[in-house]
Write a structure and sequence with these properties.
Blueprint lengths: L8 H19 L15 E10 L2 H6 L7 E6 L5 E9 L2 E11 L5 E5 L6 E9 L4 E9 L4 E9 L6 H13 L2
Antiparallel strand pairs: 1-2, 1-8, 2-3, 3-4, 4-5, 5-6, 6-7, 7-8
Amino acid sequence: VRPRPRRTMKGLLLNLGLVLLCAVWAQADVPVQEDFQDDKVVGKWYSFGLASNSKWFQSKKQIMKMCTTVITPTADGNLEITITYPKMDRCEKRTMTYFKTEQPGVFTSKSQLSKGDLQIRMVETNYDEYALMHTVKTTASEVNTIVSLFGRSKELSQERLNKFTQFAREQG
């Protein structure tokens, strides 16, 4: 029987540093909407696409359904995101705040479920039809990528759906 290696604070910090480095590296090549205007994304959106390398997502994606997202400005200039989705025989709501950063179109937040840190990038939008977003969720043990496609109405062109699929595949 081999003795178990001792876990030290130094080793834990090294692992955490590598996780954070991966998160920064994952965001390095992701574009952000040029001249992003947060006041134009305010309002109701429908989810059309969600892709992630998260194990949780992979196990749940077959039962996920379209949800609605309402974006409202907060008094301090951030964005409040309210997501409503069907769960069994009722609707669930989750609300979170996207905090502005120095770069327009880039926000930070905290996952209520996993307690992970989120960095959200508005990759592309024309404000009145669709929005393509890229999120990196970082927890103590892993880094996950989430790509989301939203539309203002319950229908979206095949061109937009294809763009989402291509972008999601490029993100892994």
